[in-house]
Please model this.
Amino acid sequence: MHPATAIGIIASFSVMIPVFIIAFGKLYKNISLLSLLLYYLTTGLYNLAGEGIIPINNELRKNFGIINNYLDVPLMLIVLLLFCTSKRKQNAIYISLAGFLLFEIFVGIFFQFKRESLTYILGPGILMIFSYALIFFAQHAKISIEKNKGFGKTFMITSIVFAYGCYIMIYYFYYIQKTSYVNDVFLIYYIASLVSSLLMIYGLILIYKKSKQIEEVQITRKELADFFQR
Model:
């Protein structure tokens, strides 16, 4: 097996692990984490189809790829709501989400939702996500360092910054430069997916542990309240 193929298969399975953590940890009750579940689920299924693990015909895989790319930025914008520390930042994300959805609809209709439209939606979308992620990374890294807390979110936003930083490079080579070294571009993509998913997995584990601690405290408080009311 070629090393690039092996890395592609490993990366394809690795992006499915956050899906299971969110699902079995019942973290999907949060809209941002539900969006993250859908993001990784669609990406993972598409990658597994691309590697031939899930057998589908080329036409279906092509259409699924287009849908997956159209969902990428809207889903990730919803994920970024998790990192907003103020109402003003939340409103900025909501406005960006609404504006980008309208932009996608316009471009999609103009190009009849064909593959060519991806060049126009992915570029601005990737830059927007990367810019927001950098801002949130600076905020949460500062909180983690100064207050020694919030490490789960810090690892999660680090994962997004790393992934979309790599996606900028991949977009340039694949869509702008239109390099003939397509296999190398996909190798970079899979390495980026693998590293970012590992960071996300660790962040989600920390978030899950924190949620269990909060749940235990709430149960204890309820039991104490019931006891003293008797």
Summary: Helices lie at 3-14, 17-24, 31-50, 58-80, 87-110, 118-147, 151-176, 182-228. The chain has a mean pLDDT of 89.
